Amino acid sequence: MLQLFQNIDWTPFLVSIKLSIITCVILFCFCVPLAWIFAFKHFRTKKILETIITLPLVLPPSVVGFYLLILFSKYSFLGEFLEKHFDIALAFTFEGLVIASCIYSLPFMFNPLYTSMTLISKNVIEASFSLGKNSLITLFKVVLPHIKLAMLSALVISFAHTMGEFGIVLMIGGSLSGETKVASIAIYESMENLDFATAHIYSLILLIFSFIVLLSVNLLKNK
């Protein structure tokens, strides 16, 4: 067992961690103002947009991955436009993988932030506005300090979810070593090659990593 750990290829885990960190940063920066708008603004298409945002929760990853693969391919309008004018290819690239992960992990970041913001008393927000504070200051000085726990949960859940992604990663990124081959793909390929020992090591590492992350969050919650 010790020999297997020494000979293990850590590259898929590094790719997974890199993908998870970038995805979490992008989603956090995007979802904080988005949750603010949904929590404190009223507009006609709100419920429709909420449904679209949370759709990845019930859709199989292969469905999302299939349509994104079509969208990213050079035969689609978007894919052709990006490749022709900017020389950018999204299918089977790390950049495409980041976009796909952001779309599929969006509800895992958005829902905790949105739910916690809706629990903040409207009187607190109105008091901030009555003191002459604009929306930006109110968001950073009043709202975000009230939802620290929700922000932590959203970041951890999104990170852990991205680390464990398989279907959408396989559809969009394939298995390019050092670029799109993440830990879950490495486990799948080890099983395909009947290399159960390596698959076991990879799975054990992910299990231990996930346990440590969740345990750390629970300890921080208690503090």
UniProtKB/TrEMBL annotation:
<comment type="similarity">
    <text>Belongs to the binding-protein-dependent transport system permease family. CysTW subfamily.</text>
</comment>
<dbReference type="InterPro" id="IPR000515">
    <property type="entry name" value="MetI-like"/>
</dbReference>
<dbReference type="Pfam" id="PF00528">
    <property type="entry name" value="BPD_transp_1"/>
</dbReference>
<feature type="transmembrane region" description="Helical">
    <location>
        <begin position="20"/>
        <end position="40"/>
    </location>
</feature>
<keyword id="KW-0812">Transmembrane</keyword>
<keyword id="KW-1003">Cell membrane</keyword>
<dbReference type="InterPro" id="IPR035906">
    <property type="entry name" value="MetI-like_sf"/>
</dbReference>
<dbReference type="InterPro" id="IPR011867">
    <property type="entry name" value="ModB_ABC"/>
</dbReference>
<feature type="domain" description="ABC transmembrane type-1">
    <location>
        <begin position="13"/>
        <end position="217"/>
    </location>
</feature>
<keyword id="KW-0813">Transport</keyword>
<protein>
    <recommendedName>
        <fullName>Molybdenum transport system permease</fullName>
    </recommendedName>
</protein>
<feature type="transmembrane region" description="Helical">
    <location>
        <begin position="52"/>
        <end position="73"/>
    </location>
</feature>
<keyword id="KW-0500">Molybdenum</keyword>
<feature type="transmembrane region" description="Helical">
    <location>
        <begin position="149"/>
        <end position="172"/>
    </location>
</feature>
<comment type="function">
    <text>Part of the binding-protein-dependent transport system for molybdenum; probably responsible for the translocation of the substrate across the membrane.</text>
</comment>
<feature type="transmembrane region" description="Helical">
    <location>
        <begin position="88"/>
        <end position="110"/>
    </location>
</feature>
<dbReference type="GO" id="GO:0015098">
    <property type="term" value="F:molybdate ion transmembrane transporter activity"/>
</dbReference>
<feature type="transmembrane region" description="Helical">
    <location>
        <begin position="199"/>
        <end position="220"/>
    </location>
</feature>
<keyword id="KW-1133">Transmembrane helix</keyword>
<keyword id="KW-0472">Membrane</keyword>
<dbReference type="GO" id="GO:0005886">
    <property type="term" value="C:plasma membrane"/>
</dbReference>
